[in-house]
Amino acid sequence: MTEKELRIGRIRYLNVLPIYYPMESGVMGRDFKLVYGAPAELNDMMARGELHVASASSVEYARHADQYYLVPDIAIGSCGPVMSVLLISRKPIWELEGETVLTTAQSHTSACLLRMLFRDYLKINVQYETGSVMESIESGDLPTAALCIGDDALRLRSDDRYPYRMDLGEAWREWTGLPFIFGVWVISRKAVEDGCFNRDPATLFIRAKDWGVANMEQMVSMAADTGYLSKEDMRTYFTKGLVYNLRTKEQEGLRLFYRRLAEAGEIPAVPELVFYDHGTMTPPECRQEPEDD
């Protein structure tokens, strides 16, 4: 069976630097292709079969679990304050009853979590409007409250115009006692069915994650060069704010999120977490893993 070069979707958020830098730098070899894009673009490319592996929001997996396998033991989440998924507000959070919250279109998972927290945890009724948070703020049209994620959240977390903030990862942890998983890595079932990968994608990502975690101080220094946070704050962000594992507790938190989404009618049903296994899901001639360069 003919092998095919592994095509990997790469989002540009800073929080995935420890996963992708080992691939971009050549540490993991160069027998794969990285394709850059926004999350929605990568989702569409996965659906069309143009990518084999990519990160996906937790909600994207829930809504299309029949199209994907999960890469084992890798995710992007938090076990407390995540720092880069924030509700920022010009008035105290508990005074937002009846107000409109501007939500980003960049992350379905964060928006679903925010609605869940307001509805079921805070018991505050708010309205939602979707748009570009940064464009609104930069134009001087300041929303009363806004959900910001990723690099935008790191930029705005100390903005004096928004003195009130709720870290969504921290709020989930306070509510449930569990980690929250914002995103996962998925492998296209269609790509698996269509033929051989030139290497095991799950092993590639796990090795990249392990390398990034083992060299986290280098990742912190590179991330601090963006100027979003001080080096000390960036170290806290990467080593205390984020989690990259998808083990028992993380899976428990993810399943609870799915159950509550299903109860609210946000997803049709709670999806099963189905993990990719190169040894059983590919033909024998595809299973040999080449040595890293």
UniProtKB/TrEMBL annotation:
HAMAP family this protein is in? MqnA
What does the record give as EC number?
A: 4.2.1.151
What GO molecular function annotation could you give as one example from this UniProt entry?
Answer: hydro-lyase activity
Q: Does the keyword Isomerase apply?
A: no
This protein's species is: Desulfovibrio subterraneus
Keywords on record: Lyase, Menaquinone biosynthesis
Which Gene3D superfamilies does its entry note?
A: Periplasmic binding protein-like II
- Protein name, as recorded: Chorismate dehydratase
- Protein's job: Catalyzes the dehydration of chorismate into 3-[(1-carboxyvinyl)oxy]benzoate, a step in the biosynthesis of menaquinone (MK, vitamin K2).
Reaction(s) the record says it catalyses: chorismate = 3-[(1-carboxyvinyl)-oxy]benzoate + H2O
The family classification in the record reads:
Belongs to the MqnA/MqnD family. MqnA subfamily.
Q: In which pathway does it act?
A: Quinol/quinone metabolism; menaquinone biosynthesis
One of the GO BP terms on file: menaquinone biosynthetic process
